[in-house]
Amino acid sequence: MSRVGKKPVPVPSGVTATVAGQLVKVKGEKGELSFAVPDKVSVAMEDGAIKVDPRDQSKEARSLWGTSRAQVAILIEGVSKGFEKRLEINGVGYRAAMAGKVLKLSLGYSHDIDYEVPAGLTVTTPRPTEIVIAGIDKQKVGQAAAEIREFRGPEPYKGKGVKYANEFIFRKEGKKK
């Protein structure tokens, strides 16, 4: 039995959720999201909460049970609170700045990198060495953060590059004489 899947997802006040067949639509103060639940899992509204159950006891249905419940919980959290990822830039001359809907990154290459911000996300740079990505879709926020980090990932000797704010970079010792 799935420990995650057994729990119904409570719908907080200020959020409206509708279940139409296999489609779950959630609307809140930050926006609107929807998720198509796989056919091996049934979904229903019960007592102000969304209940997810497997249709049979096959391995695939049980696997999708907890995953579907977690996806529905993420939708509700996204439209009520939203999601945020913070990136830090380390290195001499490395910096970031917003110019309209484009994030301009100087990461030690011979050219600046222009990153087009995807629709539905807001990117801010409170400091030249900090990037904050926010939005209601957890997958889009994480994907944008990963794409920005990929331009110059942190290296293990001096720690230069773009890293997540809570990420620990394992440091290596340099060459010895």
Automatic annotation (TrEMBL):
Domain of life: Bacteria
GO function term, MF aspect, one: rRNA binding
Entry-linked InterPro entries: Ribosomal_uL6-like, Ribosomal_uL6-like_a/b-dom_sf, Ribosomal_uL6_a/b-dom, Ribosomal_uL6_bac-type, Ribosomal_uL6_CS
Keyword Ribonucleoprotein: yes
Pfam families to which the protein is assigned, alphabetical: Ribosomal_L6 (PF00347)
Entry annotated with the keyword Lipid biosynthesis: no
Keywords of the record: Ribonucleoprotein, Ribosomal protein, RNA-binding, rRNA-binding
GO annotations of cellular component type: cytosolic large ribosomal subunit
Family per similarity comment: Belongs to the universal ribosomal protein uL6 family.
Function, as annotated: This protein binds to the 23S rRNA, and is important in its secondary structure. It is located near the subunit interface in the base of the L7/L12 stalk, and near the tRNA binding site of the peptidyltransferase center.
Protein name (database record): Large ribosomal subunit protein uL6
Species annotation: Enterovirga aerilata
